[in-house]
């Protein structure tokens, strides 16, 4: 796909009102407009006297940000910057990523979704609400979003582990796309966050007079499906070939939409596939660190919803690739959900769980008490080397659970992946203490209380690179093989420096995205017939990167 000049419309307009350029976040430079630009664009009088540089602006903004006392205030400040000067927002993020990532993204973005209506100021992205049904095509056609390449869409029903946030869920696609730009260098003018407002069943939201969403209970069933279908058709018509990322849909819809659309357009579900690839990468890294061979061990998934089942499916593929039969691969995996250990014919609640359900015969003895065994009993019997949490149940990995894991393995691998911290199965500090410092730990949200070697096992290590690779290769589909290869590529980046870190630190997320993108391009070439450019995929990836620097061509525009 060729790059066409971005944002040409606003430039060629050469607005009669000079304030227009100041209120366009993609063109605004704030105090960094030069004297020549101020002359030419008629900005004198609209800006304070001082002419700043972008690095001066970064220093000023980071100092102001640090003076706020809560992450939520910092989030609001950053969102305001994003909506007024996007170049500076990304330059700031690139320079202070480790500090700012937990603010623009998990975990603070969770609170921002819960309190979205409080800080709603300027429009960003698209709110497509159910009452607009029948008009989506026209709305998309009329709006000036040109050349959109990456869309992240949610209906707000399962926001991290925080449940139904209705229209407040918009914080998630905004945050995810910020990371597409920050980590994968996708031009922000070509990204589009979308909130499908199909109502909310969150009573507190419905009753809150501040709530900015459509005040209605959730639309479900055939009406919901028809609305989504109308949306997808409108997207395909308006932005053919654009990548559509499904994010934070409730489990049953997440699974159904993925299977309905994955073969119709380049599209993936981040919570199922992105999380699965991230978890697989963490396991592959931890496996080497622990000096074990996964195919000789058991893996326990606690929480077998859409994310847990996605992990199971990638894991089975990995074990088969190592020579295990399908049944032997399945046999390595145990799933424990609300009703205990998942057992065939007893408590399989969703289709995805069939893959990991234990045969009834095998579990007969376990069922003797009349009830499927719970987490701790399953650990004691199966003695898994790996424990993964995608349950959203805060504190589920308590002291007895961690001690049981540590009893049978020198280096148990424990990954409480649920987000944000208030939904995490355990804190890193507790897991460390209860395993006498032996556990290899990865947490979904940034972890406090660890010793610095605790990896954030979050899909931000995967999705930006998946998107970048798909765009560079022109892939028409996002395949399972891409996620499997992306996981291996990510795991290969673990440094052998003796630390327990499973992934590179967040400062290196741009390199991570390049590596993941390369693995995606190679799969696209192998499986989908994508043609590499003459100078190779690496160069194509590097060429595509949008960098947060002010444009110096504002003077030459007529
Ligand atoms: O957003 C995150 O941090 C990871 C994710 O997709 C989720 O928890 O839904
Ligand atoms: Mg998500």
From TrEMBL:
Residue ranges occupied by any Malic enzyme N-terminal domain in the UniProt entry: 82-262
The keyword Phosphoprotein is annotated on this UniProt entry: no
Ranges of residues in domain Malic enzyme NAD-binding: 272-525
SUPFAM superfamilies recorded: Aminoacid dehydrogenase-like, N-terminal domain, NAD(P)-binding Rossmann-fold domains
EC numbers on record: 1.1.1.38
InterPro entries recorded: Aminoacid_DH-like_N_sf (IPR046346), Malic_N_dom (IPR012301), Malic_N_dom_sf (IPR037062), Malic_NAD-bd (IPR012302), Malic_OxRdtase (IPR001891), NAD(P)-bd_dom_sf (IPR036291)
Active site per the UniProt annotation: 105, 176
Keyword NAD: yes
Parts forming coiled coils: none
Co-factor(s): Mg(2+); Mn(2+)
Residues annotated to bind (S)-malate: 158, 419, 458
Enzyme class, first EC level, given as a word: oxidoreductase
Binding site for a divalent metal cation: 247-248, 271
Gene3D superfamilies assigned to the protein according to its UniProt record, in alphabetical order: Malic enzyme, N-terminal domain (3.40.50.10380), NAD(P)-binding Rossmann-like Domain (3.40.50.720)
One of the GO BP terms on file: malate metabolic process
Cofactor binding note from Swiss-Prot or TrEMBL: Divalent metal cations. Prefers magnesium or manganese.
Annotated keywords: Metal-binding, NAD, Oxidoreductase
GO molecular function: malic enzyme activity; metal ion binding; NAD binding; oxidoreductase activity, acting on the CH-OH group of donors, NAD or NADP as acceptor
Family: Belongs to the malic enzymes family.
PANTHER family, sorted: MALIC ENZYME-RELATED, NAD-DEPENDENT MALIC ENZYME, MITOCHONDRIAL
Protein name: Oxaloacetate-decarboxylating malate dehydrogenase
Lineage: Bacteria, Pseudomonadati, Pseudomonadota, Alphaproteobacteria, Sphingomonadales
